[in-house]
Amino acid sequence: MTEAVTTPNPFEPPQHQPSVGAPEGPEGRITAGDVRDGAAITLVVGVAGVLLGLLWVWLAPRAQYVSNGEAVFLRNTESEARIGADAMFLLLSVGLGLLSGGLAFLWRRRGGVPQVVGLGVGSCLAALLGWRVGLWLGPTQDVAAAALRAGKGVPFDAPFQLLAHGVLLGWPMAALALHLALTVVFSPHDPAPAQGSDGSAYPPPHVHDGSTPESPQP
């Protein structure tokens, strides 16, 4: 009996054989575990907004009002305390955003859409929660009642407020930017395709010299 010998076609690209033990299924498929990881990131980062609110109340500068018995005025019209409260909120948000983005990457280095979405949604919730917690724990929002309790000519703390609501984007932008940068730098990349001697992705075509291959002997 003779054994048939199949000569590979040199003009066809090489066929990659699947490695033994390689996982089956399409690459990049979102699994239930990825969704759970994204939900966990959303919950943890969102709850961290309480820390933002506490730090904001503790560190933000305080503007003061004073009443003349008929109206309420700023005690110091040249004070930058109200702008300083916005700046402090933004500074704290960026810092916590960088921290949450770095920790999320270290926890799940493989990344994935659910993790990124969870980080973005959780960061937005954290910023909103920190804002509301700061308003709740800070001076009362009822300026008239605060002026009545303080009395005429006695200064009292003005309620917290954000003059520029755009600072609420500080946390999500910082978290996603750092997470993206870490993913680009440290995540594993796909291996480059094998190249021929001339640098091409496929081996060069076979050049026939006019000789015919010997037929197999029986």
Oligomer: single chain
Cα radius of gyration in angstroms: 32 Å
- What low-confidence regions span 5 or more consecutive residues with pLDDT below 50? 18-26
Kindly name the structural category: mainly alpha
Query: pLDDT average, as an integer?
Result: 77
Percentage of residues in helical conformation: 40-55%
Any idea what the shape is? elongated
Span of the ends, CA to CA: 6 Å
Task: Describe the protein.
The chain contains six helices and three strands. It has helices at residues 32-47, 49-59, 81-107, 113-137, 143-150, 170-186, and strands at residues 64-67, 72-74, 156-157. The longest helix is centred in the middle third of the chain and has 27 residues, at 81-107. The chain is mainly alpha-helical and 218 residues long.
For the structure shown, list the relevant keywords.
6 helices, 3 strands
Fold topology:
Elements: H1 32-47, H2 49-59, E1 64-67, E2 72-74, H3 81-107, H4 113-137, H5 143-150, E3 156-157, H6 170-186
Antiparallel strand pairs: 1-2, 1-3
Helix pairs in contact: 1-4, 2-3, 2-4, 3-4, 3-6, 4-6
Task: Briefly summarize what is shown.
With 218 residues, this protein is mainly alpha-helical. Helices cover 48% and strands 4% of the residues.
